[in-house]
Amino acid sequence: MRVGRRDVMPDKNFRIFATADIGDAAIKRLRERGYEVEAYPNPESPPKSLIIEKVRSGIDGLITTLRDPIDAEIFEAGKGTLRVVAQYAVGFDNINRADANRYRIPFTHTADVLTEATAEFALFALADLARKLWSAEHLVRENKWGYWHPYLPFLGDEVTGKTMGILGTGRIGQAMIKKCIGFDMNILCYEAMGANEKLVADVQQQMDLRYKSGMQRERTSINYVSIEEALSQSDFISIHVPLLREGESDTPTYHLINERTLRTMKPTAYLVNTSRGPVVDEKALAKALKEKWIAGAALDVYENEPLPPDSPLRDPEIEDRCRLYPHFASAARITRLSLDPQRGMAGRCVQALIDVLEQNYGGDVTKMPYVVNKEAFR
Ligand code: GLV
Ligand code: GLV
After folding, report:
1. Which position among 327, 336, 348, 358 bears the catalytic label?
2. How confident is the model over 232-257, as pLDDT tens digits?
3. Which residue's alpha carbon is at the smallest distance from atom 3 of ligand 1?
4. For atom 1 of ligand 1, which residue has the closest CA?
5. Sign of the C-alpha dihedral computed for residues 219, 190, 261 and 293 taken in this order
6. How far away, in angstroms, is 155 Cα from ligand 2 center?
7. Burial 252-280 (b: 16+ CB within 10 A, else e)
8. pTM over cut 0.70
9. Cα–Cα distance measured from residue 375 to residue 73, given in angstroms and rounded to the nearest whole number
10. Regarding beta strands 296-299 and 270-273, do their DSSP bridges make them parallel or antiparallel, or are they unpaired?
């Protein structure tokens, strides 16, 4: 049974440090419950030394973003006092899970509320890339639009009816699949954890319905395949895996896209990455774009963020086929700031923090919906 918010006020004034301002509404909600909240006021992330200092000062809860490295040093500073780390993101590769478990500190994330926002962004990024929206607007703005012509100065590639390769069929991958159905696409899925047969059955049923009713011209299909097959057969590849480094998983995803895997893609294929930057070897990708092993790439995430000025991805020679965004996929107003835990990252982040500190769910961390490292408490 889901136990909702408790109306009783906590009997202790919890102290919170947030490494970023997560919005007025969220901070107000905590303050209304008697929490003392300090949010780092600058837009950049605070230095790690400052986070350690705050944790050492005895805070009960730490609100983090994907920019903050959270590891043993932080947990050691909070020994005996720090009770929860509430990450304002679905991804949590910046948090050392083994260290959190060793110190028995639960950490939470904001899954689900940014699923659709991220998937639609991946689709729009793909559209920008394949239909050359960025180049097209530049043509107009730079007064280089001199004529309407059947194929000059350039053409894009249509998305409808093509084959989409989805790497990772978790929440966001599935949302992307759902949107691709509407584009009459064939779908090839790769998932290290194994096929989701229910997903295949449900999606195939939708595709068949669309075909039978005449809504789409061709019969389409969804199949789980090997990563090699997904890469070599797809017109578009969209990455939706978590970042798992060597030693963190039997199937690490660090540099999953590298020189070898890029060479298996079609020269006409496009790559979209809205997951985590280090899943793609950027040096190899820049080379692949320059030497035209693939047709293009759209990236929202990078090995180092913000993208360094000397990144090979900025090479003007590949500018027309390399779209670059500022880790922006979840950056929609409601997705980021809504106080509703079912709709917004801010709402979900503070609810997760409150659940742990106020011992909702009978104080059983393993029952709290947003706690990630439940294994440490079983
Ligand atoms: C954004 O990248 C997130 O993980 O929420
Ligand atoms: C395009 O604008 C067309 O009319 O075909």
Report:
1. 327
2. 999 999 999 999 999 999 999 999 99
3. 89
4. 89
5. positive
6. 14
7. bbbbbbbeebbeebbeebbbbbbbbbbbb
8. yes
9. 21
10. parallel
